[in-house]
Each structure stands twice: as C-alpha cells, then as structure tokens.
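[Automated response] Your request has been received and processed.

Submitted sequence:
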Amino acid sequence: MTAIDGHTADRAEEALPTGYLDTAHPLETRFGDPDDPDNPVGFAAFLRADERGELLPAGRSLLDTYQLGAEFVPAAHGGRLRQADELAQTLRPVFRRDAALGLGHGAIKLIASATVWSTASTDHQRWLAQVLLRGGQAAGAYTELASGHDLTRSTVRATRDGTQYRLTGSKEVINNVNRADSVTLLARTGDGSGSRDHSLLLLDMSTVRRDRLRFLPRFRTAGLRAVHLGGVEFLDCPVPASAVVGELGGALETVLRAFQVTKATLTAATVGCFDTQLRMVTRFALERRLYHRSVAELPHVRSVLANAYADLLISDCLSSTVCRALHVLPGQTAVYAPATKYLVPLLIQESVDQLATVLGARSFLREGPYGIFQKHLRDLPVASLAHSGATVCQATVIPQLPRLARRSWLSGQQPAPASLFRLGAPLPELDFRRLEIAAGAEDSLLAVLPDAAAELRADPELGPLSARLVTELAALKASCTALAPRNRTPLAEPIGFELAERYSILLAASACLGVWRHNQDHPNPFLRDTAWLALALRRLTARLGLPVPPGSATAEQRVFTELVTRERENRSFDLAGRLLA
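Generated structure:
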C-alpha cells in the first residue's frame, strides 16, 4: 500500500518540540480567519449551517481535500496516525470552529476504527484502511438507546448460520450510520450476560442486503445539531462469517483497549472549543467599556478569565499527557483515559459557565461576533458523551483504585519518565495491541506528585501547595484501601464515585507538575514560569475542597497578562501556544 505523504513536510515540522510555534498548523491555514464574515469556512458560515442542522459542505470539502481520513489510519497501513497527541493537535483547528464537523466528519472515524486497529486481522485492517484513505465514511455501532453505554446489555444479535451470521435488532443514535461505507458493529453472539457474549463485526455496507435492513429516522439534538444521528434495524440480515473482528466473544475486551485511545484523543481535541470560547470572552472584555474602563480591568472579570485560562491549561496538561501515555505507559492508561474523559469536560463546562456571566446576554446570541460561544456551549456537553459519558468513565476507574492504592501510591515507585511530558517530542508509533484492559500495579503518573513535592519543598508557593496535595493522596490511599467490596465495582455507592473524582484531580495535578518540570527549555518563558502552575494547583486544591495556602497575588495577574498577550498575537491558548490563522 502506498502511504499518503501529502503532508509529510507538515508532520516533520510538527514533530519538533519548539520549531513550529511561529507557524500555523496546516489546517488552521486552510480554514483561514474564522472571524471573517465572508470566509466560507468561518464562524458565520458554521453558525448558518448549524441553524439548518447540516454539516457545512465547505467544511466537509476542506477536510476531504486535506485527506483527514488518513489521520485515523496507522502509518503501517499507509496513513498518518503515529502519535495520539499529534492527532489531537490536528483535530483542534476543526473543533475550534465546529465540534459537529470535528466529530461528525472526523473523529467518528477514529471511534469506528480503533477497535479494528486493536484486534482485527490484517485483511480487515487493510480493507478499512483503504476505505478511510479514499475518503470513505465509517460508523461505530456500539451502543443502543435503551441500554446507553452499558455494552453488556446490547440486544442486537448475530446468530451463526453455516458460513454466515444473521443479524437481528436495532442500533440507535449512531453517527453517520446511513451514510457509512463501513460499520463496526457490536452484537451479541452468546446467550449469557458475561464478558464473552459479545463480538465485533466489520460490515462492508456496499454488500449488505438493503432489503434486510432499515434505516431509522434521524434524532435531533440541542447540541451538535449538524451531526446526523440515526439508527439501523437489522431484519434477519445475512453477513459473512468473515465479518467477525478478532476473537469471537472478545468485543468487550477490545472496546476497553481501543476506547482508551478515543477517550484521550477526543478529550484533548475538544480543548479547541474551549480555546474559542475563552478567546471570544477575552476579546469582549478587552473591547467592551464599562464605568469608563474596559471590562477586562474589573478585578472580578480578570479573575474569571485567568482562572478559566488555568483550567484550559490543566485540561491540556492532563489530556495531552494521557495521549502520550498511550505510547509511554500503555499498561496504565486503562485508568488514566477514563479519568481524563471524566474530569476535563467537567472543568471546561464549569469554566464556560463562568465565562458566560462575563459575556452576559450575548452568551445566548445565535449570530453575530459572539454567536459561536453559544454554539460551543450547546455542542460540548453532547460531544463529551460520545461513546462514554462521565458516569461510565468513573465506573471504569473505581474498580482499579484499591489495587493501585495498595501497591503503588506513596510506595517509592519511580515517577513517569520525561518523555511522557515533553511537548511535541517524537514517540514510538502508537501500538493499539500494547494497551491493557485494566491498569496493573503501577501508577507512574501519580508518582510524579510526591516526587515533585519533595523537590519543591523550599518553594514558598509551590511547596505548600504540593505538600497539601500529597497529604490528600495519603488520605485517598487510606480511603480506597478501606473500600467495602460492594464499593469496588461499577455499582458502587456515591463514595466510590467521589474517590474516582478525587483521584482524577490528583492525576491532573501530577500532569501539570510533569509538564512544568520537563519543559524548562520551552521557548515561551510563560511555560517555564511558576505562575500558571501555581494557579493551576490552587484551582485543583480548591476543587478537592481543601483550604488553599496563601499565595502570591501576582500569579493570577501574570496568567491574565499571558492570556491577553496570546489574544493580541493571535496564538492558541493551549500549551503549544502556536500561531493561528
């Protein structure tokens, strides 16, 4: 197979840790100025398409010309997928403009294909690679409306009949299912309720008998209005036995591995939406005059903006670190990925709610210079539900906590290596098969926290903050070790979910410390500074309900100053700080 190499030069540049900061991402350049009302792929055009409930045709065409499908195909099969953090960076310019386009014409292909890269035969992988490389559409039919994200209750059945299977039942609320060239289907192949009663099938929709399936009406949603959510009913539909992906009965194990990639990558991509919302409100605060001065000069508004920026940096630290952990710590991401997908949308949603108070009535406008704010406000909660919501993520974390508490936390374990945190640094190619369905006895990312706390003991601000977080880790260790057996399962009482949240927050603190420690050669002095880290740790400490130690009054001001500088220089607000179009 011939590799798609149209963007080889772009990718080589992006692999550099610092050299690409003063150039826009190739997709940013192609999209152009989002604020230009005459730009066919600007905010105004996306808002009009959203009102119509359709994906913007010009946006779809742009992504097709860019051959975005190749981003979801491993390099071994001719695509451009090598690093999960690079994929997230590629998706951010899309999500910065329209989460519906980013998911509905982009990331859905990762959700549909990740299980195939994780376990399928070479023939299956080659076929799906060809579909995506030629710009074809893929759908992932995993969930059902009645059972939500509980895949063990799937009712679509695949019954063996000689050299074929017969499919019966319905899948609803599936993205692009009626437009898909390939469908990755989770179906029941056993009669029990255990983990070995479901299998994955890869369907070539061009060969499926149309008289044996029925596409269900489209579901309309308040957010992601342009995403085509529909359903399909199988009417004793025959498919070849060769459609089974991987081991018969192995679907749930495969999903647990593959969705680590989708959870980390898509969470990191949605930071692009948050970037746009923070940019809109920052711009408004700088331009709007109130009481003979700009709104941005009001202390409360400065605080809201600075704290929102800190939350964005926390979100980027955690999600980007976990994307890199898929390569560096593949045996541990079974707990990191769901913790990330739980916490980051929560941080973003709460920050956006605060930003809306600054924008005031304008936060409800569906057109004009701030119209994109309300679109992202509606889109993000729906996007965060894609293939696994907050409760499912916490339920995935809970059973893993007691083992980690006993065997890893505060046990002198070596912290994660520097390669986990080095922004933009190259990593070994992503290998889906190395991912484990449950974390083992190591928690290298969380081990960064006590290690960094010891190093920062003498720092007047970071020292007390990190020490308090280590004390919280000790309390979490005791609580998780003492959990009753019934609270160590996805059916745990509220205490189990509370501990999962506390763990996720401490994981975010460790990611922030790791990024700060291992990027001290970054060309932007802000990232090397302690101001953003101090504010981030203060935010996380407060979220844990702990008293926040007294700190420097200048940290918040320095973070606000960087926010304004990046807005005026037209740079992204994320860790990379790259120029925008």
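Summary generated for your ticket: The chain is about 50% helix and 10% strand. The beta strands are 138-141, 157-161, 164-175, 182-188, 198-204, 213-219, 229-240, 244-245, 289-290, 293-294.
If you did not submit this request, please reply to this message.
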